[in-house]
Amino acid sequence: MRLAEPVLTAHVTEPNAHTLERYLEWGGYQAMLKALAQAPGEVIETVKQSGLRGRGGAGFPTGMKWGFVPKDVARPKYLCVNADESEPGTFKDHLLMERNPHLLFEGSVIACHSIGAKVAYIYIRGEFYHVQRVLEAELAKAYAEGYLGKNIRGTGVDCDIYVHRGAGAYEAGEESALLESLEGKRAQPRLRPPFPAVVGLYGCPTIINNVETIANVPLIFEKGPEWFASIGPEKNSGPKLYCISGHVARPGVYETSMDVTLRELVYDFAGGMKDGRALKAIIPGGSSVNVLTPDALDAQASFDGLVKAGSMLGSAAMMVMDETTDMVWLAANLTHFYKHESCGKCTPCREGSDWMYKVLQKILRGEGQLRDIDLLLSIADQIGGKTLCPFGDAEIAPVVSTIQHFRHEYEHYIREGRSLVPRAPWRGSGSLAHAH
Amino acid sequence: MTFHPAMPYGTPDWHKSARKLADEGPPFEFTPENRRKLDEILTRYPADRRRSALLPALYLVQDQQGYVSGHAMTHVAEIIGCSRADVEDVVSYYVMFFTKPVGRHVLGVCRTLSCALNGAERLTEAIAGKLGIAPGETDPTGEFTLIEMECLGACDRAPVIMVNNEYWHECQGADDVDRLLETLRTRGVAGLTGCHHVKEK
Ligand SMILES: Cc1cc2nc3c(=O)[nH]c(=O)nc-3n(C[C@H](O)[C@H](O)[C@H](O)COP(=O)(O)O)c2cc1C
Ligand code: FES
User: What is the average per-residue pLDDT within A282-290?
Assistant: First the structure.
């Protein structure tokens, strides 16, 4: 069933939507009280029934993840809300936290109750200082009204939520690197197993969930797991936020269900292409997933639908490119991102991203050779699957998939010494062509 | 030695690793107010996990002094109870800590794909041209530092600029640069658009 109307973002454009007062008017915190009346095992069972899958990138079933937390250990347990939102193209958690923060708090308390945690940390990216201020002001109100803290609304449940601000590191969004960062270290991934659900923050069992995942939890208790499971295709249930940016007429966050197609997202929700130019390519799930061509427009924008189409839903960040886009330049732009953000722990990722960037720059300068295309693929092959976290797989996606779909553009660059696509008006003059 | 036979790994051009030592800077101690703030922040973490307060402590240093100096790292290490090397390790990793003095306004222009598709390259070139500096530099008056940032998480308002790690300016074209610089010079960050979500309040 198609989602009839927005639920996560129902009120976000209304005045003071972020305040506790308005949230309570709209029936806020009732789902939490319902869930706190249930035993933790029952709560997990309900979330499993809903079919909720994580919105952070991998689509892992949330109820199942919560079930991995051992019940018989005396150590404290933790919830870490992943609000790092650094995947290029993604800006949905930004909207949710700024305009609907209490939904996140409510979901966090339910999650904590289900796993036996008394503390949740919201790890927010350093660049979201303005969001942190909203969260902290609203947290204070929720504490004052007894929706957080000791003995929440007389239920006997205790739960504290703190906001922890990162300091600019994409890798801090990777769950084990997030824990390292929260412990005051470099955001570098840990070797797994053990998985965080068993050995996580401070060596204690820890659940890490994306903001949007947690924000969905109260809806499951408010409207029932059957309702949730009925929204969207089977195994891809519930409301979903899509971030659409790039060359579209109306970039923004759109809420629907995962039976939506890429075509609907681009042409109906986002108003079609900007300035009437033709669509050339879509990256459907953030920069870490494969580029698709207009052939894939009828693919379902669900976890499973986009895998079938040869890409991934990832963070549901659609970056849309029109015909003026030079795809070799695009690969270099994103490879710059990965080379800049590689945490440096694994050699293939650290050195490989830099190598790929240098080879791409060489092609862009008109100094490439045909064998550089195979060299790029061979470097990529040495990175993919050979690193501690999926960053390595992510950084090769833009290079490998642009070569797969637009190899002729690489070849043209190499043969003619310049791009097949005339320099777009939105591009710079190249006067700052960086060596960094 | 190289793990990829075609790559000249280990030669200076193709090897990235480099270590920069921090400037010691002037003597540093937290103001009583910042020290109180840090003590409050420390209560959010288990008593034996003081190091969790390291990033917040470094933000307080930067609020107080504008950048994180060597002396400040030593001071923070003493309060947190870790080594100076631990602090340096962290400072050098995260992009939002400055290790040398910066201009009164640090303009962080997003350079990642969605902003680039909407003119970020032209925007950066225009700012650099007006100020006569390259990204990473501060203009001679000490008013502006220009840096490039990676995706700021507001790609629907491309191109986006973050000022002083805290303030936002959205939908900036190359043609808006004169006005932006003039506004910052005369009115400071109060003249920025802010995040559009905040305005919807
Ligand atoms: C390099 C990298 C960056 C990531 N960044 C984020 C992020 O910014 N936000 C997020 O929620 N998940 C991010 N993830 C995914 C997390 O590791 C983790 O899978 C997710 O937070 C789990 O939450 P979920 O089960 O609710 O989806 C990232 C993963 C990798 C490999
Ligand atoms: S690409 Fe600039 S904010 Fe995302």
Answer: 98
For residue B33, give the 3-state DSSP assignment: helix
pLDDT category of residue B19 using cuts at 50, 70 and 90? low
Contact indicator for B53, B47 with CB cutoff of 8 Å: no
pLDDT value for A435: 40
How close A123 comes to chain B (CA, Å)? 12
Nearest CA in chain A to B16: A351
Residue A429 sits at the vertex; the CA angle it makes with A424 and A431, to the nearest 5 degrees, is: 155
Q: What is the dihedral of CA A258, A24, A13, B177, to 10 degrees?
A: -110
What mean pLDDT is predicted for residues A255-266? 98
Q: Cβ distance B154 to B168 under 8 Å?
A: yes
Helix axes B177-187, B120-131, angle to 10 degrees: 60
* Pick from B93, B119, B166: CB nearest A129: B166
Please name the amino acid found at residue A94. Answer: H
Is-cis flag, bond preceding A239, omega within 30? no
Judge whether B32-93 and B105-191 match in fold.
no
For A100, name the nearest residue in chain B, comparing CA atoms only.
B197
CA distance A285 to A215: 19
| Confidence category of residue A129, pLDDT binned at 50, 70, 90 | very high
The CATH fold of domain B32-93: Arc Repressor Mutant, subunit A (1.10.10)
Interval B131-189: pLDDT, tens: 999 999 999 999 999 999 999 999 999 999 999 998 888 888 888 999 999 999 999 88
Task: Copy the structure tokens of residue B167.
Answer: 């303030």
Architecture of domain B105-191: 3-Layer(aba) Sandwich (3.40)
Question: Does ligand 2 have an atom closer than 6 angstroms to the CB of B162?
Answer: no
Q: Under an 8 A CB cutoff, do A165 and B55 touch? A: yes
Residue B15 reports pLDDT greater than 80? no
Residue A127, beta-bridge partner list: none
- For residue B86, which residues of chain A lie inside 8 Å, CB to CB? 184-185
Domain borders along chain B are 32-93, 105-191
Please state the pTM of the whole predicted model: 0.96
